[in-house]
Amino acid sequence: MNAPRVALVHERFTEIAGSEHVVEQLAVQWPEAKVHVPIARPSGTPSTLRTRTDTTWLDRLYHLSGERSYAPLLPFMSRSFRSMDLGCADIVLVSHHAFASQAVFATAAPTIAYVHSPARWAWEASLREGESGGRVGGAVLEQLAASARRAELAAAPRLYRVVANSTTVADRIRRWWRRDAVVVHPPVDTEAFTPDPRVPRENFFLVAGRLVPYKRPDLAILAANAAGVRLVVVGDGRSLDHCRRIAGETVTFLGRVPHTQLVDMYRRCRALVMPGLEDFGIVPVEAMACGTPVIALGAGGVLDTVVPGVTGVHVSGSADTELVDNFAAALKEFDRRDYDPVAIRERAESFSRKVFRDRMQRLVDDVPT
Fold first, then answer.
1. Cα(149)–Cα(187) distance, integer angstroms
2. Helix, strand, coil: what percent of the chain each, to 5?
3. 210-221 pLDDT, tens per residue?
């Protein structure tokens, strides 16, 4: 019996982040599959996929605009996915953020949607506050959000199977799409992030990743100030200036660093601090793959990855002042001797690339063709 022909669909290739690594691993598992996207640019496409990517008519508009922003193209995204030529695919795998599930209307083949999240900006009005650019912009954004919600709800019942990247996202899918979802965690490169017992631990905590408001690096900095502990901040983003202004003498900023230096920082820090709410959160698993415990907000994807007392600490709280106090207490009380780096590494290995590929293969194998 011949293996089913698989087509891959992704939201867009405009920057390389966690979802692009998901598609990259799907492409490893199905090396003959084309990757279909509405728009793409070389710097936003994983190098291994640049010769395997098919774009749509929308890509011409994107390049004519100078690739400055994809935002003006969002009203056309649904139509772009619905008009995709997916060839003779027996199964379609969709990597969904907001509009990609519309590809289900472009094929008669069973479609599996790997959902990084339903479009939170469309479903949660609070995420649209301050993003509209005035009354007219606000009205346009509200119309786009309503359109995205309608599109997701239209596609949801047609999907053969829905896959969520975490329990938190599965709950969101159940609440908003009225569909059950199986959880398959995203792939983490546990081969690139490894422990090294020869590297001594040093007396500092670490924050790593993009410095943007929703990741709440400010809470970690204020907690380090209050606890009087050393904190090293790796990464940059639009919150950098604010973070510098509120930082005390024990906080150091390194900016964006090369991969080898990031691995070294994971290996040398006492613990990683993650104060933001993430749908999954790859950074804490990278740290764990280096044998490093994690002090994290006890919500979202961390509930799937960080095991209290084994691989780290869950910090509770709601108001910012309470969170700062609780993170400060966790930093003061933290004792690395309470954690076994071997056990931490073993936990991280359950989120490896191979585990991800094997689980997705089983889902495809279960589809009748």
1. 28
2. 45, 15, 40
3. 999 889 999 999
